[in-house]
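USER: Note each token:
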Amino acid sequence: MASQSLPRVAASAPLRGNRTPDQQLDALNKYSLYKPRLTRILQSNLKQLREIQADRARSEDYAMRETAQIAKSFAAKQTVYDPTGDGFVPANRARRTADSRSNGIIK
């Protein structure tokens, strides 16, 4: 059985690393030019992401506290509270945390 060889694919100049000094200098100049701009954009986007995450965390905390208060009032009436009726379904762990906070167990 004859062995089959794979066709050879020629690598382009950038992949081979055979760049002329002028090409390397041009690439370095472009990097130096665009790096501060890209860094500013990245920092701006990161700041915006953190603000959105903080807003979402505050909203979730408020919703969990509200759910815990409603569940508490239903428990006082000895009825079962179904948060899906209000369009909100907290995770069990998160609901327990909110219950603990509203009861003063967690500060």
Q: What stands out?
A: The chain has a mean pLDDT of 77. The chain is about 65% helix and 0% strand. Residues 21-76 form the longest helix (56 residues).
